[in-house]
DNA sequence: ATCAAGATAACGATCTTTTATGATCAATAT
DNA sequence: ATATTGATCATAAAAGATCGTTATCTTGAT
């Protein structure tokens, strides 16, 4: 009992007919002639020796068999499209450099893994620097893409996600929050965090002092963990060793920051385009990090 | 970015090439010409703009892309075949009568459910009678199929499954197993069970008496549950209220019985063929009933 | 050198799409 | 109600593309 094979083209028009509700509309959508679609439907019915549709008046209705075939068709076409785009993706080759501030690195490993699975032939390089630095490098085409916290003075780029900033301290610490507030600052977003924090404190009439500074979060970690100062991070950067402080701490609320994706000025290479798409998709939903 | 559709025919030959390891062998298997298969492979490569195979010497090897497409192909074809046979199955209509001994009914509900899912347009009637009776009815074409315990005196039919017979008593009872053994008998297999039991006892030099008889297990259940007698059932017929007795009970071992499927003498209708197949498939594996 | 397998070319048949036309049905006007 | 209009769908005929076959050529292994 050898099973004949479906013509996926015909199944695609079947789905189009179902989606649009009419033969002519389906024809338009598929860039076929009306008569072609009409005959394709007939062909399908002839091959299966089943009537898939019937019309009462002008309305087209699918029979039970039609509905069933429709379901099969959707599954088959989904698998087909997936297979096809996988085969295409594997053909995409090239090299690609992405810039990110060091502390966003923790956000992206799963994206990188997925990207490599989809496009195994693409060589991906990641460079870390401050946001301001990265923006300049992208403009100079030294990077294909850069994912940065949006700079006030360097607009452009697509906003991928907005994220709340939070005050945080070591998880077991109860820092003294009397003025002046001891701040631990680092410069991931080229001091965007710092700017924002100082503005918020000033607006609230609070006093502060910069207790510690470092180029990276890693350098600051011991100080913060020890409870010697509070730090400003995005919510998705919170680690198990960091405890966020809510408004009951008395510290002023902080604004949202924007993650922006910058692209090199020239037309993006195919790999760059794909990674950009992927980052947008994957990062669009606000992460529910602890 | 609209994804083109695969030609499942080409994928089928790709699989055939992979299975057979050569173009000519695949051609033979698919009833194509060698050149056709050769060109189909080329067509596939042209459509994807990928080379799927390479040969070193005479040996044909798939590239990484080829292997990948092969995997996709198998999935797609499996789905295709499933969809196709489902569409065909739904077209099968008719009526169909199956005979079974009453006590096998418990074995088949899942088969009936599955059958109805596969062939919703088939009307299935089930008739219960003793095995001997059923065999005659099938021969007289009053039934399409009969699933019976094989009769010594009426051979024929396909053996679907062998199953052990066991002695059983009420689950909480400790019956007196001194001679004469009190037997509770019913006649599901037209007394095959009785015959077998008495032969086994006689061969073991034991004495017995027929304490209770009934036409059905249901009639016997209270007596057995009460511990007034032992009964002989197949292992798959054991219910939670029945406790099997092993050899430590002192009762002689019982032979296997055979479940046989009889078909009406005329050429079976399509529904009958299908149900027969399904019963064979589903009942082939010995059930691990409690 | 010979044999078997794969590739290629040319031809033919089949299948598919299109253009053109006719039929059917709903809606609006008379 | 009846007729007219507009639109959708079905069908016929013809052009066109595709696919499979036969026949031939190339290539690699024994």
Automatic annotation (TrEMBL), chains A, B:
<dbReference type="InterPro" id="IPR050176">
    <property type="entry name" value="LTTR"/>
</dbReference>
<protein>
    <submittedName>
        <fullName>Transcriptional regulator</fullName>
    </submittedName>
</protein>
<dbReference type="Pfam" id="PF00126">
    <property type="entry name" value="HTH_1"/>
</dbReference>
<dbReference type="InterPro" id="IPR005119">
    <property type="entry name" value="LysR_subst-bd"/>
</dbReference>
<dbReference type="InterPro" id="IPR036390">
    <property type="entry name" value="WH_DNA-bd_sf"/>
</dbReference>
<keyword id="KW-0238">DNA-binding</keyword>
<dbReference type="GO" id="GO:0003677">
    <property type="term" value="F:DNA binding"/>
</dbReference>
<dbReference type="InterPro" id="IPR036388">
    <property type="entry name" value="WH-like_DNA-bd_sf"/>
</dbReference>
<feature type="domain" description="HTH lysR-type">
    <location>
        <begin position="6"/>
        <end position="63"/>
    </location>
</feature>
<dbReference type="Pfam" id="PF03466">
    <property type="entry name" value="LysR_substrate"/>
</dbReference>
<keyword id="KW-0805">Transcription regulation</keyword>
<dbReference type="InterPro" id="IPR000847">
    <property type="entry name" value="LysR_HTH_N"/>
</dbReference>
<comment type="similarity">
    <text>Belongs to the LysR transcriptional regulatory family.</text>
</comment>
<dbReference type="GO" id="GO:0003700">
    <property type="term" value="F:DNA-binding transcription factor activity"/>
</dbReference>
<keyword id="KW-0804">Transcription</keyword>
């Amino acid at each position: 009992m050898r099973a004949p094979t479906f013509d996926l083209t015909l199944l695609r028009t079947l789905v189009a007919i179902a989606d649009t509700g009419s033969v002519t509309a389906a024809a338009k959508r598929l860039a076929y002639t009306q008569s072609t679609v009409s005959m394709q439907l007939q062909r399908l019915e002839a091959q299966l020796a089943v009537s898939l549709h019937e019309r009462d008046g002008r309305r087209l209705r699918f029979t039970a068999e039609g509905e069933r075939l429709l379901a099969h068709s959707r599954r088959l076409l989904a698998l087909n499209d997936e297979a096809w785009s996988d085969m295409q993706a594997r053909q995409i080759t090239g090299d690609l450099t992405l810039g990110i501030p060091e502390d966003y690195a923790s956000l992206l490993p799963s994206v990188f893994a997925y990207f490599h699975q989809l496009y195994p032939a693409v060589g991906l390089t990641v460079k870390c620097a401050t946001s301001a630095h990265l923006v300049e490098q992208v403009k100079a085409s030294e990077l294909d893409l850069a994912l940065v916290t949006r700079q006030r003075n360097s607009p452009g780029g697509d906003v991928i996600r907005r994220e709340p900033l939070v005050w945080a301290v070591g998880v077991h610490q109860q820092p003294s929050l009397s003025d002046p507030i001891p701040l631990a600052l680092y410069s991931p977003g080229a001091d965007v965090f710092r700017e924002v924090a100082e503005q918020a404190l000033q607006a609230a009439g609070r006093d502060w002092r910069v207790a510690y500074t470092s180029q990276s979060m890693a350098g600051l970690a011991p100080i913060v963990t020890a409870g010697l100062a509070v730090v400003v991070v995005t919510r998705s950067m919170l680690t198990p060793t960091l405890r966020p402080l809510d408004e009951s701490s008395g510290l002023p609320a902080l604004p949202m920051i924007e993650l922006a994706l910058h692209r090199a000025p020239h037309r993006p290479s195919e790999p760059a385009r794909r990674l950009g798409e992927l980052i947008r998709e994957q990062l669009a939903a606000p992460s529910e990090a602890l």
